[in-house]
Amino acid sequence: MSAKVGFIGLGIMGRPMAGHLARAGHDVVVFTRTRDKASALLAEGVEWRDSPAALAADRDVVFLCVTDTPDVENVLFGADGVAGSIRAGSVVVDHSTIAPAGARAFAERLAGQGVAMLDAPITGGEIGAQNATLTIMVGGDAAAFQRVEPLLKTMGRTVRHVGPSGAGQALKACNQILCAVNVMGVCEAILLARQSGIDPATAIETLGGGAGGSWAWTQLGRKIVDGDLNPAFMIRLMQKDLRIVQSAAQENGVPLPGTALAQQLFRAVESRDAGGDLGTQAMIRAYEGMMG
Amino acid sequence: MSAKVGFIGLGIMGRPMAGHLARAGHDVVVFTRTRDKASALLAEGVEWRDSPAALAADRDVVFLCVTDTPDVENVLFGADGVAGSIRAGSVVVDHSTIAPAGARAFAERLAGQGVAMLDAPITGGEIGAQNATLTIMVGGDAAAFQRVEPLLKTMGRTVRHVGPSGAGQALKACNQILCAVNVMGVCEAILLARQSGIDPATAIETLGGGAGGSWAWTQLGRKIVDGDLNPAFMIRLMQKDLRIVQSAAQENGVPLPGTALAQQLFRAVESRDAGGDLGTQAMIRAYEGMMG
């Protein structure tokens, strides 16, 4: 069944995601800060709207995929925001990675006007967005989730309702802990292999299938060995996510020493040569820097 | 072709490994500190020897699987040690996890009497030893490796020559870095999930296939969720290995802050209630202790 949907935020993730919705036969309208980013979608017949309010006015479901908590707040509740025009009974689905507390607060405000908001952060990277193989972890009202689940399945392979409002964001925070800590292990293991005279490519292959194996080891380890520090996921976005992680951990009284150490190492990379725009595997630079 | 082999050290790893050699048709004799541990093998027709020297005297290949660097030194060069009786042209294969520098020194001493020594540490756990699916990473003379490779393949699935003497131990050190650091991420992610009200089993399943996924997340994470802290690999053995890791890193000028943090957390668990005998996933106790 075709739905009237809107998509706000056409970055490297949002653009292919909106494309999947359109190609699945839904009526898709879009808004993003830089109209140029919409051109390929507009050429496919997707329609442009001039603001979040203009977009949301006649939509059943409004998807967001922006950067941080203040961006979501602004798109929803700022001047020309979604909340000013959206109809009661509609659903807002937020794919951005923001603080769980923010997700809960925004959902509560929208609930006041009869609109369900789901937090639905994603993982799987640009490739996952392009191939519709994302993992989408959803928090919020279960009935609203059931309504939008078929739409989410056009964009993701693993689509799961994990709890009430904020739970999707909390689980995404857990994911980012794993990503940040695992890459630290990858860097330390590759450096010791390299300095011990072992071919790091052999190291990656030999250890990949064992108890030390991880996505980070196989994927990011190989990039480090190849000297490829281009971003699949940028350090500055990881740092934004890790600030969210620490605020969620603070709220819940959870000490995260390993994550904190990874943050400091990422900071060392950020502190020079536009290091924040490199991929998370560029953490290796922090270690190389220590070794002079 | 049947070989005359000896196996020294019949712990939870060595015992099934020696069994695979025997079942592959080789002439196997064994020695271990506690003779009782050999009883099942002896019942299968394997023969007992009263000391390393008695074992090594007429063997083509002598396998060791003991605990630490001093244990290997003692078995090789102590009173009634292997070195006192082994014939020139034989090969010693050491499956213990010891310091790379120790492996190199022992190999050099044996080379002086015409005996090749390969360092061949293993990963894959008790299950891997039982099912002959171990990863065996081998350092040392390439020709000696080729001679024993068919024997190693009766015990392991991934059998790789990774460099000169000590390289196998260095790569095992890299593996232990990954294991130690990854379990830290697992603990932090599970705690945040738990305290955020997310079902940790759902968290493990949802994130397992993504960029945060790892062997540690799927295997050890599940054990933590189930409250199962029984050892697949004991914390005190991991700590022994991490001391080796740090000595290898010191030798090579590699800073390992993530690994160092994991060591401290394991130490906190070791410090009470026989925590060192628990599995590495019991690191969760250090975190729970911090939370009071």
Reconstruct the topology from this structure.
The structure is a homodimer of 292-residue chains.
Chain A: E1 4-8, H1 14-23, E2 27-31, H2 39-43, E3 47-48, H3 52-56, E4 61-64, H4 69-77, E5 91-94, H5 100-111, E6 116-119, E7 122-123, H6 125-131, E8 134-139, H7 142-152, E9 156-163, H8 167-195, H9 200-207, H10 215-225, H11 235-252, H12 257-270, H13 284-290
Parallel strand pairs in A: 1-2, 1-4, 2-3, 4-5, 5-6, 8-9
Antiparallel strand pairs in A: 7-8
Q: What does it look like?
A:
The structure is a homodimer of 292-residue chains. By secondary structure, chain A is α/β, with parallel strands linked by helices. Chain A has two domains: 4-164, NAD(P)-binding Rossmann-like Domain (Rossmann fold), CATH 3.40.50.720; 170-291, N-(1-d-carboxylethyl)-l-norvaline Dehydrogenase, domain 2. The first copy, chain A, has 13 helices and nine strands. Chain A has helices at residues 14-23, 39-43, 52-56, 69-77, 100-111, 125-131, 142-152, 167-195, 200-207, 215-225, 235-252, 257-270, 284-290, and strands at residues 4-8, 27-31, 47-48, 61-64, 91-94, 116-119, 122-123, 134-139, 156-163. In chain A, strand 8 (134-139), helix 7 and strand 9 form a beta-alpha-beta unit.
